Fold each of these.
Amino acid sequence: MDMQIALLLGQDGLTNGAIYALLALALVLVFAVTRVIFIPQGEFVAFGALTLVSLQAGKLPGTLWLLLALGTLIALIDGALALRNRQFRRGLWIVSVYCVLPLLLAGTLFAIPAATLPLPLQVGLALMLVVPLGPMIYRLAYQPIAEASVLVLLIVSVAVHVTLMGIGLLFFGAEGSRTLPFSDVSFSLGDALLQGQAVLVVVTSVLLIMALYFFFERTIYGKALRATAMNRTGARLMGISGTLAGMLSFTLAATIGAFSGILISPITTIYYDSGFLIGLKGFVGAIIGGLASYPVAAAGAILVGLLESYSSFWASAFKEVIVFTLIIPVLLWRSLKTHHVEEE
Amino acid sequence: MSELAGADERIVVLEVSSLSVSYGKVDALHGIALKVHRGEIVTVIGPNGAGKTTLLCALIGLLPVRGDIVYLGEQQDGGRSVEKLVRQGMTLVPEKRELFSEMSVKDNLLLGAFDRYRAGHRDQLETIDQVFEIFPRLRERRAQMAGTLSGGERQMLAMGRALMAKPRLLLLDEPSLGLAPLVIKEIFRTITQLKKLGVAILLVEQNARAALQVADYGYVLETGRLSLEGPSRDLLTDPRVIESYLGLGGRH
Amino acid sequence: MKHAAHTTTVLLLFITALALAPLLLPEFYITLLNYIGLYAIVALGLVLLTGVGGLTSFGQAAFVGLGAYTSAYLTTVHGVSPWLTLPAGLLATALIALSIGIVTLRLSGHFLPLGTIAWGISLYYLFGNLEALGGHTGISGIPSLQVLDLEIKSGRAFFYLIWVVLLVFVLATRNLLDSREGRAIRALRGGSLMAEAMGVNTPRAKIVIFTIAALYASVSGWLYAHLQRFVNPTPFSLTQGIEYLFMGVVGGVAHVWGAIIGAGLITILKQWLQDWLPKLFGQSGNFEVIVFGLLMIFVLHRARDGVWPIITRWWPQRPTQARVVVEAAPLARRPMPKPGSLLLEIKDATKRFGGLVANERVSFSVMAGEVMALIGPNGAGKSTMFNGISGVDPLTSGTVIFRGQRVESLPARDIARLGMSRTFQHVRLLAGMSVIENVAIGAHLRGNKSFIAAACRTDRKEEARLLREAAAQIERCGLAEQMYEAAGSLPLGKQRIVEIARALAADPCLLLLDEPAAGLRYMEKQALADLLRRLRDEGIGILLVEHDMDFVMGLADRVLVMEFGRKLAAGLPEEIQRNPAVVEAYLGGVE
């Protein structure tokens, strides 16, 4: 391996690592706040990318139907509840948020040719289609059993993951696709050629991480989420309900997932089931951070990206084997660090 | 805190009757009846394990109850929840303090006003100043992580955080727990100050003397039932209080 | 007993129907039943692991693959007999399961399932990329099984093999669960703290059930390889691993028969959905996972115990089969220390949680044949002291000398072995298990029969002695009438008494009782006090934390008062009651 290849692989690894880091942060966040191990994170990556592909191809993305269906379901459940408690204003609010807004979005999509819109608007539309699925799924699948054990929530996560994956196949078919590149620019740095898209991915990831940092450190809602993660009872006594924190963290995770998918779709072919493996690599990073530390999780995720990139050079067939076997020494290291674990 | 108009000292904030709480098949509390008026400190004292904490958890909506609770003139029904009660101005300072230990004192206080923020109030900075007036120590420590505070400061922060919600009824669970006598004295002096702000306080304490000295009215809770009640002055000298604590009942 | 008879009838009917199935059903259904059997073997392992032990694995399919590939490789490449590849596959599986288990099982609950997802993927890609294993095309031409001259080749012949293996495994699993080691496994769900305090080596128990589950899966893989006579990586993917867990959860993961029900339901549903969904959607693909996922979410929301408990509602069973054999020989007892001799000595015990000091340089001792009471206001550090002494949460510094031996750095289970037994402030019983089974956990260290002995039922003599001991302790504590009731159905006060009976079943010389009288009525308290006095007269030392002062003062020989984690006073009950410092500590005061 010469220097040029090494740099190229490093660039690849860093690009993927940045995405894994974003996902790892979202996973740590969701786990800390809701105790949900968010396996379906990967589906948001795939949905984000493939929704943008559909928009650019001038097709109606299947995620729209999912959005309408979940919205209607929630409106029916929560609306009925509000009616029974005679909270008519609340009922109206629920119907407008969960039914009218998605319908307006659908109307927009029918009315204007999305394929001809400028890229930022397309990205915005794709996010508007995919991100609300996050809190909706929280409301339907997790909130009714929010007090269940981590293991039950994990099994639910796996169930949500397979459901969404099946739905992904239904909507987007088995073929993979790429979106149009955001930028064709490339720079040369010494011997190496820096691809504009790769730089964009890394820079955007860093910006997103900074935005997250700002959100958690400076806004009262961000602080409320951290408070819930630290002390659930304490937070509840301040009026920060578990449902609110759950919806909020799922919204963030869905945003991060969908946006990550959109970022990498010009450089990676995305299939309906690609998200799962991408998400899991974020997971390996999150586990390195013990599902608790944000910086360690991010660093771990970048390590995963680099390891993957270099192992694809030496033993490309065993790339996945190497990445996922990494978890064993990591777990060993964590188990040696943990002296005593007792779930009270 | 707008209906000062009536200016009637005896407005009932909380009225509880025949309240029972069970864990599974066991009654933890049985037939509890008590009343808290505006601007009044009412204390429930009793030995360890009598059900004092259970009572407060039940009132704030953390535990399901049977019986009647009327809060601010409103009968509480099945739709009662912690979040709703917090919105209506009931706040609990829990026995374990439940602080956000990896956050600064100031952030802890800020989150005390989370629900007011959500409801559209933006007066947090002034409220924080008021809380700092009451607990000057917290001002000194405002940048420090809550987890690094001393026991007394933790209790002050827990109370300060609760005050950030501008409560109408403050439920205090064993504020003296684990604190040194001098600190207890300081905490209880603050509790009497709060009374002057017009907050109704329900104070649950094992430290009977300290509680009765600051309270207007007291109840004695023994194994899930209220065994005695009366103006605190009378309870302070009642020998039956001592008996219920030290098990002298059967021997003299 | 009528219910037991019902159960036996149903079971016999089921076996008869199975035996007749190949003679009556067409080939298609036999194939389906063969797959149900193969899947149920794997799901059965999950019952043991997840339903009983509370550990979750999504990676069982990888173990199936290990069994299948070991046999496929050895028979086709090296011409080894399939009967030899079975133990080879089991050995390979056991080695891998042990090493994975050791790495992940020490961590908190969710790391194991996450680990299983990762290495499930990893092994799948390994199977698909190793040239020697035929890559993604797999290995074909695997020989069929032969017994003497008889070749087990047809689906119908294989049917008997699969279902006999499955039923044997079901029987062995049931036997195992109904034994000393089985109770230890079932105790894992109640948190390892209690199990450790009763002397159970919980990490070992976890690794054992993880390995057993992996071995079941491996056997299923071996059968699969010789039934199909062809293997490729697909059936061993993570997706299949997830499906195995779904089978367990849908069927009822806490019940051995739930594995068969779950495997049956999911397999039949899958068959049906694979026919219908592509027609419905007008395209081909694995759409059945959508339905499976939704079904799982529904089951976990609405019927978390799965289908089996719903079925058994038609013929309700008693919670246990454990029955006491009165004529069993009593267990050997440990020699008791002389009354009045030093039993436990605590010197300068200190416990810190971060910056908080819960115990600070506390020293005291307990003699054999005395009741020592530890009292003090809330938060004085009494329960912390208990946890320090019993090794559940070791002290930061200081020494604990129990029967002349320093124990402050020993794990709880080793301290229990020396004759210290305890109860918990928050009752730690297994609510679904009968009182007698709960109490028998206390006698864990008084038996030594292994998992294998339990599965083969060669442990019955010891088991009878253990149950007899448990029954004797229950009677002694006055709970004979509730012996076969589920522990969770008793009132809290009675549950505390069950905890005492469980502690006594360990044949202790020192009893640590954490608030034993809480929740008891007056008469029950009297009975408890009488029991404790009798125990004291037998020479047992009792260390007691209790809030009911009437109870403490009437019972204790000596009293130690703690406040702020420190020793405030010590002495006879009368002295303590008159001690002004104690009165102050309890009633408090501002001036």
Note: Residues 181-196 of chain B form the longest helix (16 residues).
Amino acid sequence: MNNLFNYIEKESPIHGLTGATKLVCLLLWSLAAMTTYDTRLLLVLAVLGIALFPIGRIGVKDVSFMLWFTLVFLVLNTVLVYLFSPQHGTEVYGTCTYLFGLSGHFAPTAEQLFFQLNYILKYFATIPFVLLFVCTTNPSEFAASLNKIGVSYSVSYSVALALRYIPDIQKQYHEISQASQARGVELSKKASLVSRLKSASAILVPLILSSMDRIEIISNAMELRCFGKNKKRTWYMAQKFKALDYVSMIVCALLLVASITLTHINGSRFYNPFK
Amino acid sequence: MKKLSVKTIVAIGIGAALFFVLGRFVAIPSPVPNTNISIQYGLLAFIAAVFGPVAGALAGLIGHFFIDFSYGWGVWWSWVIASAVFGCLMGVATMRLKIDEGEFGTKGIITFNVGQAIAHLISWVVVAPVLDILMFQEPANKVFLQGVTGAIINIITTAIVGTLVCLAYSKAIPKKGSLKEEN
């Protein structure tokens, strides 16, 4: 399971933070990066996010696959944004400065290039932090931390259940798929899309029917142990807050405050150098 | 909020796990970035139809969050929330169906499919793009293209996969009054 979620077990200050802290920081950080389009703050976020990697003792090698994936998406998205609205920058910044003496719908403008730079920066402001979160947070601690930040424990328990049963269901899916293929169900590219979907259902039906049995068994077992009777619940993986936990939460909260203040000062979410 | 029953809690957990496995390992990429041909929505529609809107919404939310989480490309909250909205709307649309009592006839199939089509349209053509624009200020026509492609693909896959699964499940359950007294 730990392989599936790319969790890398190491000793580092970031690994030592509780799951709840990291979750709160992730939420604050993504909110901060989401609200602002200010180039300066995005740069700070991007640099900070990348600077955290050595502290968490996560190397580029550990995340190279995910980085690759993200970069492909980034390139595709940037190209698409340009193709679909090459004048988006002009709309956003309110001025139009053609570059290289070209003009027309697809001619590059300084505003568009600046908008796309911000767009790329926005990716770099959020993604390193998420990658770091994924690499340093034990999935089992995740459910416990959800409960700690105020999600009701039955919902947190659903998350814990999902994490517990993902490997089981994955294994079962694999078994059923191989059994069906042995009986002639075609799933490869040779079959047409509709027939592939139909054969996917042929695997799904036994998988879902057995999962329904599983739901029955687990809920009976939980009911027999009086799940949901008490208002609170303790967690095996829960940890106590330390000084560093408070510090990192305050830093992330300050970033969010900075982001909102900047939006207020600029009068919009964008930093406009063209005025 | 009303207290969730133990069965709903378990259904959310297992539903999210199924959603994750199907979405993570059975994905077929489509030409538009960030959009996969994903059979997991057929399953989500089924879970929502059987266990109701709360289970549908949370299973979609948790499952989709874990898919994004495990790929590590960042969690796209706009799309994660859209999945939850789909699960919730689907649960509301199919409130009156009694699949878990073994009833899923022509009328049920029509309700299910009209419901899923509307729920997909609202989630992918309205919720996801609007959230994308609010959060990332992406150009509107780009996100709407992604949304429309996603909606069309999801409607087709849900129509095939979801209907087949519902049919199979309702057949596996003995109907009310199916036992007769012997003379």
Note: Chain B has one domain: 6-92+100-172.
